[in-house]
Amino acid sequence: xxxxxxxxxxxxxxxxxxxxxxxxxxxxxxxxxxxxxxxxxxxxxxxxxxxxxxxxxxxxxxxxxxxxxxxxxxxxx
Length: 77
Prior knowledge:
The protein is mainly alpha-helical. It has helices spanning 2-37, 44-47, 51-74.
């Protein structure tokens, strides 16, 4: 009985964690795309930021979003 409950609890935790990681990865990668290509879409708030800072933030967001996506897909919790 106890073992079955623990297995169910672990599956529930894994599903919640996987969903959270993939959702956050999509949001972070979306932020990276907006930061990188905001100038082409004429987003005024993005174009007012210094180019170096904007591309640096986009690069970091791409890396971290990719890591979160990898961790969500791999799901070894």
